[in-house]
Amino acid sequence: MAEVNSSSGHKLGQLVGDWFEEYFVCPLLKEVAESLNLYADSRFNSRACRGHKIIWEYLDSNEVDYDAVLEINGTNAQKGIPVAFIECFWRRGSRHSKDKARDDSGKLMPMRDTYPSARFLGIIAAGDFTAPARELVMSRGIDLFYIPKAKIVESFNYCGLTIDYDDKSTEYEKDKIARSFIEGFSAKEKRSEVATTLINLVGKNEIENYITRVRARLSSSPQEIRIILRQQSIPIRFESTQKVALFLNDPDLSMRNPAESFVYEISYSDGSEFSKEVTSMSELKELHKQISTLEKHMIGDNKPPTWSYR
């Protein structure tokens, strides 16, 4: 009898998770990126401007790696302006669902306070992810694209592959399923076949709705921008990004005091807010540059949302 791998269940889950990220999530985000003329970064891209992980800095110079990031003006040679951060995962069982929701949403939320252009934070989840866990994610203002476990399992079953087993299964039984799965899932054509089956089960309308949600979030325009000196209580108010740019090109002399710090605040048409304190005029200009670039980009001609598996 062949040697039994005591971690067969974990290995099987890892293989399904990697497939979900590469064959479903990445094509979906590439479609979003093409629709909105953005760069979609994932660990399946090779970029000269980073290592293996997709690492971004947030408040206090901390660093976190993400599953995917959408950028304006990003290329293989250089990072662009981040507009969306996305985490994805597959969960076979519901155990610790709320912990997973808390961890991933907590990982995403700092980017909202770091980059004013990071208007979309999302999780693409597949598997047994409980209702309380899903509610926690959405309560934090994070978009959730959720695919129930039954549809993932059905996609594999339809293509002659088994990925699920009873919780009381022995290690030998799980090892047998894992070995059979690995043997039948090695060909790229089989992986694509399962992905196409999943797309049909989820429905192309749901996928296009996701693309529309990303577009809507990024397209929400600033309605009021406020620049506040930390030492004064009355903000300087602007009604457009253009008026802010004119002011920053020739600010009031009191704004040039290097001892001052500033708060940059934005109210958006969708009701959301952004606020960040900076300690220099150059940082203030960089914040506004990111907002202006996003606004101009979204006003430009972008392709309508479509979906086709690639």
TrEMBL record:
It comes from the Bacteria. This is Uncharacterized protein. It comes from Thalassospira profundimaris.
